[in-house]
Amino acid sequence: MSPANDARAYDASPYLPSRGGLAAYRRAAADCRGCPLYENATQTVFGEGAESARLVLVGEQPGDQEDKQGEPFVGPAGRLLRQAAEEAGIDMDAAYVTNAVKHFKFVRPGGGKRRIHKAPELREVAACRPWLLAELDLVRPEIVVALGATAGKALLGSSFRVTKDRGALLSLPVEGKDEQPYVVATLHPSAVLRADDREGAYAGLVADLEVAAEALGRK
């Protein structure tokens, strides 16, 4: 029975290549069947950006536009993130961006054509975590920005809470590494777009990103 059809075996590990750089992992991820999300998604959306980036930004999962284009953060949330990062002094062209889950999970209300984002389950996040850890191991960033609760839990564990942990430099233990990257958690930009007080939520996102920018400046 394949991992995708066995609920007890949600795990992308068997699909990871034994060696190679980001390009090899990206090719392998295209055929990942580590959980059922691949069945309805258009394609795997792997991370993109500088292979030696000092900063990695991790979101939840691809959205509708990301799923169609095959690139992370190319939709409305991505445009808002780029704007906020620029205000915070972060060069997004020098960063690496990815998601905790590599396939778009969605529902179609009323059976229509419109695809609405649905949050991934913890077992789906756990299944995809080997890809995320591999990306971090290959890029070796100094700072990781967790955009939202799903990214935070994928990086720091199930006890993570955005409201409690955002805007602070948190340690990210990486087994076998002497120099550990730091994590700065903040809202996902899509949460800013949905916020009643969008102006305040956006200001908070910029402020949290400034923490990451300042930490990079001190390194």
From TrEMBL:
It comes from the Bacteria. It holds the Pfam family UDG. The keyword Disulfide bond does not apply. SMART domains: UDG, UreE_C. Transmembrane segments: none annotated. Signal peptide: none annotated. InterPro entries: UDG_Type-4/5, Ura-DNA_glyco_family4, Uracil-DNA_glycosylase-like, Uracil-DNA_glycosylase-like_sf. Residues 46-210 form the Uracil-DNA glycosylase-like domain. Keywords: 4Fe-4S, DNA damage, DNA repair, Hydrolase, Iron, Iron-sulfur, Metal-binding. CDD domains: UDG-F4_TTUDGA_SPO1dp_like (cd10030). NCBIfam families: UDG_fam4, UDG_fam_dom. Belongs to the uracil-DNA glycosylase (UDG) superfamily. Type 4 (UDGa) family. This is Type-4 uracil-DNA glycosylase. It comes from Streptomyces graminofaciens.
